[in-house]
């Protein structure tokens, strides 16, 4: 089975990451390798009612963000890529600078050097020029920068409609095209 790495970091919008885990899991297409940063755990407790263990159960493998010795630290471990959702500015900066002091940043750096798919779902507003420059450099290196900006052509009725549509579009970026995604028809 193909493998995908998912990183949750401490930006607002952890619900996107949780929902992405649900959708990928129910597709039965990918083995999920999950890392949740310490700040993401804090945001999960502040923004959701979802216990951490229930989130971790959605993945096939869960790693500590401090565990640099895990398999996903190595390019020899073949994956289809990595999605960081939500992606904090701190993690964005770490990845751009190859400042590999934690597993999320190291795994993303490996995905970039191996020229695999890296999708960074940045969440901050407004951006200053430094944020934009980090994103520019990451784009040059082949990452997809996917700010968590909702779409409305799907006529959402509730927050979960907005979240789901964004998650399906994130998955499009990594070649996971699912039927439930609402496609704009003009
Ligand atoms: C409730 C809450 C919301 C936050 N929202 C954001 C955000 O939207 N974007 C961001 O870059 N940082 C945000 N932060 C700050 C990050 O959590 C902080 O920079 C942290 O060091 C990121 O660490 P990580 O990238 O290792 O998860 C938020 C923090 C809290 C407590």
TrEMBL record:
Keywords associated with the record: Flavoprotein, FMN, Lyase, Prenyltransferase, Transferase
Sites where the protein binds dimethylallyl phosphate: 153, 169
Catalytic activity: dimethylallyl phosphate + FMNH2 = prenylated FMNH2 + phosphate
Highest taxon listed in the record's lineage: Bacteria
Coiled coil: none
InterPro entries xref list: Flavin_trans-like, Flavoprotein, UbiX-like
A GO MF label: flavin prenyltransferase activity
Positions of FMN binding: 10-12, 37, 88-91, 123
EC number, as in UniProt: 2.5.1.129
Signal peptide start-end: none
Chain segments annotated as transmembrane: none
Domain Flavoprotein: 2-172
Pfam families: Flavoprotein (PF02441)
Family, similarity comment: Belongs to the UbiX/PAD1 family.
Function according to Swiss-Prot or TrEMBL: Flavin prenyltransferase that catalyzes the synthesis of the prenylated FMN cofactor (prenyl-FMN) for 4-hydroxy-3-polyprenylbenzoic acid decarboxylase UbiD. The prenyltransferase is metal-independent and links a dimethylallyl moiety from dimethylallyl monophosphate (DMAP) to the flavin N5 and C6 atoms of FMN.
Protein's name in the database: Flavin prenyltransferase UbiX
Taxonomic source organism: Riesia pediculicola (strain USDA)
């Amino acid at each position: 089975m193909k493998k995908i790495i998912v990183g949750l970091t401490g930006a607002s919008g952890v619900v996107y990451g949780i929902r992405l885990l649900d959708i990928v899991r129910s597709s039965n297409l990918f083995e999920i390798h999950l890392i949740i940063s310490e700040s993401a755990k804090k945001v999960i407790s502040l923004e959701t009612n979802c216990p951490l263990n229930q989130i971790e159960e959605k993945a096939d493998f869960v790693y500590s963000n401090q565990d640099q010795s895990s398999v996903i630290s190595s390019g020899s471990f073949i994956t289809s890529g990595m999605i960081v959702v939500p992606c904090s500015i701190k993690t964005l900066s770490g990845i751009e600078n190859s400042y590999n002091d934690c597993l999320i940043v190291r795994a993303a750096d490996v995905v970039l050097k191996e020229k695999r798919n890296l999708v960074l779902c940045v969440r901050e507003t407004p951006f200053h020029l430094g944020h934009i420059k980090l994103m520019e450099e990451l784009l040059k290196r082949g990452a997809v920068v996917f700010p968590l900006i909702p779409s409305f052509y799907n006529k959402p009725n509730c927050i979960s409609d907005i979240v789901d549509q964004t998650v399906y579009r994130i998955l499009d970026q990594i070649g996971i095209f699912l039927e439930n995604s609402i496609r704009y028809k003009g």
